[in-house]
Write a structure and sequence with these properties.
The complex is a heterodimer.
Chain A lengths: L1 E6 L5 E6 L8 E5 L6 H8 L7 E3 L1 E2 L2 E2 L5 H6 L1 E4 L11 H5 L1 H5 L4 H14 L16 H13 L5 E5 L7 H18 L2 E6 L2 H7 L2 E6 L3 E6 L1 H6 L4 H7 L3 H5 L15 E3 L4 H5 L6 E4 L5 E5 L28 H10 L4 E5 L5 E6 H13 L25
Parallel strand pairs in A: 3-9, 3-10, 7-8, 8-9, 12-13
Antiparallel strand pairs in A: 1-2, 1-4, 5-6, 10-11, 13-14, 15-16
Chain B lengths: L2 H10 L10 H33 L3 H13 L2 H12 L4 H24 L3 H9 L4 H31 L12 H10 L2 H29 L2 H4 L2
Helix pairs in contact in B: 1-9, 2-5, 2-7, 3-5, 4-5, 5-7, 6-7, 7-9, 8-9
Classes of the chains: A alpha/beta, B mainly alpha.
């Protein structure tokens, strides 16, 4: 997008000299308060809104040069309330664009069935009508319909904002999964900064008046907000949120404070610690207890303090680890492996040091938590008998 | 004699069942006038209503035309046109069409206007042509209301088509007007009963049409 402006006849400027390079095969999120022109920007890409000034190029070609219907058919379009056709069945809704561009009925329906599976919808819903589906399911149909003719570009206008938070999280995870499989160029509009940070490869923060405030990867946005507006928009806990981008793999775990349920009197007496984590015979966590309260050979499982929610080093981020430590009654977070067996425990203090190290390791911080290398077992110790 | 015995006498008289003044012939004429007037009114009201509803422009004009047309008395219009152009089908058709256009036009306009805008936005965004949007996205959803406009127009035309008899044409109005003139109340009540029955049949036809034409996804059952 090169210096694009949209001015309405009454003089209102919705988008003001916006220049943006949207990377191929990744998710670019436009985020900002209401009235910042993010939806107008999106709608200029499929020419639902025509820019007053400036040009929008797609792979170097001016969008204005091609017929508007051809352009729109090459871009999937998902909107807030899904916008399903209530007189058509789910299958026929999804098959709309393939039918429009001249695929046969049979082929279109097969493609629709394939997409239902891809977006996680049961095939039995195909013959239903939209009113028989929940909001979340309707939104999945909306995504499937947009993907039906396999367009290279997907435009999504606040697609998940009308569903409840639990369903929204599911839809976001699903979108990330689908994107990993398909690698579309997605432009996603939202007013929810958390959604932007979770989904975006690049995030464009827009401010009222249709101006671009900052265009950066989410980790950089959190570590280096361009100005007060962006900082304000990110919210008070951006420091905590930024921890999502640091892996927990490097945390130094200790197994000193971990004892089995069948521990001997010496094992119970050995560590000089106010609390011990008791595990079952398989090494799964049971709970915390003061050593004095434990009797060798007769540990009462009911009397143990809850250990909170454990984290998985290497998979979870430092944010998850810190959260576990904060929630734990003892201030120590429990680390488990993929099978749920205790890998060790770590204190708030150690996590705090890891955070300082991570911040210090250059403010790059662009490694996504999910991409973090598997635990390089240097600091990870296995639980001993 | 009470009304029921009039009705009984009228329908059991075998003389009323054949010939040019028989019930089948008069019913046929009546249905013909009704269909013709309704067809003409639909040909005017439906496209205009769909178009104004889709574009959202001309809503005030629609309301003005509808109000003005409703203000015209059918009977007055019939006499006026009969005086100007003489006896014939035209003086009958004009008031019937004028009567039927407003409900068709106004309900069609409102029906299309009230369609949820988000599927329309989605359809436009996926590159559907405007005509397809109107006919394949808006109309199927607006159909129950559009049909209800046609239905009320049809009911009004069925009952008003009796005025055809004033200008020497046939139809069920023949019984009512001749009966009044001849002080044959059996005929008047019989004619009125036939009009009422025909109106009920019209309702049934529209009910069936709605069952057939409206998608279960719109009917929600």
């Amino acid at each position: 997008m090169e210096s694009v402006t949209k001015r309405y006849p009454d003089g209102t400027v919705a988008v003001d000299r916006l220049s943006l390079e949207i990377p191929d095969r990744s998710i670019t999120v436009l985020v900002g308060p209401s009235g910042c022109g993010k939806t107008t920007t999106l709608r200029m890409i499929n020419r639902m809104v025509e820019p007053t000034e400036g040009t929008i190029l797609l792979d170097g070609a001016d969008l204005q040069r091609q017929p508007v219907t051809t352009l729109r058919r090459s871009m999937g379009y998902v909107i807030q309330n899904a916008g399903l056709f209530q007189h058509r069945t789910i299958i026929d809704n999804i098959a709309t664009v393939p039918r429009m561009i001249g695929w046969g009925k049979q082929k279109s329906r097969e493609r629709a069935a394939e997409l239902m599976e891809r977006v996680g919808l049961d095939a039995s819903l195909g013959k239903r009508y939209p009113y028989q589906l929940s909001g979340g399911q309707q939104q999945r149909v909306g995504v499937a319909r947009a993907l039906a003719a396999d367009p290279p570009v997907l435009l999504m206008d606040e697609p998940f904002s009308a569903v409840d938070p639990v369903v929204r999280k599911g839809l976001q995870d699903e979108l990330l999964r689908i994107q990993e499989e398909l690698g579309k160029t997605i432009v996603f509009v939202t007013h929810d900064i958390d959604e932007a940070i979770k989904l975006g490869t690049m995030v464009a923060v827009m401010r009222t008046g249709g101006r671009l405030a900052q265009f950066a990867p989410p980790a950089e946005l959190l570590s280096n907000p361009a100005d007060d507006f962006v900082e304000d928009f990110l919210g008070a806990d951006r420091g905590i949120r930024r921890l999502s981008f640091f892996p927990s793999a490097g945390l130094e775990l200790t197994s000193d404070r971990v004892v089995g349920v069948d521990a001997t009197a010496e094992q119970l007496a050995a560590p000089d610690a106010p609390h011990l984590l008791v595990t079952d015979a398989e090494g799964r966590p049971l709970g915390w207890a003061e050593p004095r309260a434990l009797t060798a050979g007769d540990i009462a499982v009911e009397g143990l303090l809850s250990y909170g929610r454990p984290f998985v080093p290497g998979t979870d981020s430092l944010r998850a680890a810190l959260d576990c430590a904060v929630l734990s009654p003892t201030g120590w977070a429990v680390a488990v492996d993929a099978d749920g067996r205790v890998a060790g425990v770590v204190s708030q203090q150690t996590i705090g040091e890891a955070i300082r190290t991570a911040h210090g390791a250059g403010d790059t911080g662009d490694a996504q938590a999910g991409d973090a290398p598997q635990a390089e077992s240097a600091g990870v110790t296995k639980v001993g008998p | 004699m009470n009304v029921l015995s009039f009705v009984n006498a009228f329908f059991s008289d075998s003389a009323h069942w054949h010939g040019y003044d028989g019930i089948p012939q008069r019913l046929l004429e009546h249905v013909q006038y009704t269909l013709m007037a309704l067809g003409l009114a639909a040909a005017i009201g439906l496209p205009l209503g769909l178009l104004t509803g889709h574009t959202g422009r001309g809503g005030n004009a629609v309301a003005f035309v509808a109000t003005a047309a409703r203000a015209l008395p059918s009977f007055g219009l019939l006499v006026l046109i009969a005086v100007v152009v003489g006896i014939g089908l035209l003086p009958v058709m004009v008031p019937l069409v004028v009567l039927a256009v407003p409900p068709i036009l106004v309900t069609t306009y409102e029906a299309v206007r009230s369609v949820d805008p988000s599927p329309v936005d989605a359809a436009r965004g996926m590159g559907m042509h405007e005509t397809s949007i109107l006919l394949r996205v808006e109309l199927p959803v607006a159909l129950p209301l559009v049909l209800s406009g046609l239905r009320s127009a049809a009911i009004q035309v069925v009952s008003t088509a009796t005025i055809a008899a004033y200008v020497s044409l046939g139809g069920i109005g023949r019984y009512i007007i001749d009966g009044l003139y001849q002080r044959d109340y059996e005929k008047v009540v019989g004619g009125a009963t036939l009009v009422a029955l025909l109106a009920l049949v019209t309702l049934a036809v529209f009910w069936a049409a709605e069952r057939l034409a409206v998608s279960p996804g719109v009917r929600r059952r």
